[in-house]
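Side project, low priority. Logging it here so it doesn't get lost.
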Amino acid sequence: MELTTPVIPLPKDSAHMEVIDKSIHYIQDNFKRKLSLKDVSEHVYMNPQYLSRIFKKEVGISCIDYINRLKIEYACKLLTTTDESICHISSLCGYSDQSYFNRVFINQMKITPKTFRQKNKDK
């Protein structure tokens, strides 16, 4: 299943463009598993707190918010195109705790995964 990446304009003249670009590609390639700021920072050989600061400055949202946006976008696709259980979908999106998945989903989508599926199935 192909995923569209959230469109977040990045300044082309940023001194940190290479690190941000490498971080985003790593996140896009690995968001379906449990992925932390520490994982991303290790991939780009940078201190997690420093990466977090420059990521938010350059991208406009935190690294964790970016990861969660990708996960929830993927969850929305699965909810509308499959009959997988919500528990299984949360696992496929890299969440080990369905309760946390539900909180993140509601925070971003303003409805529960079950309600989202009911409203959007087979559209």
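Brief comment: The chain is about 65% helix and 0% strand.
Revisit when time allows.
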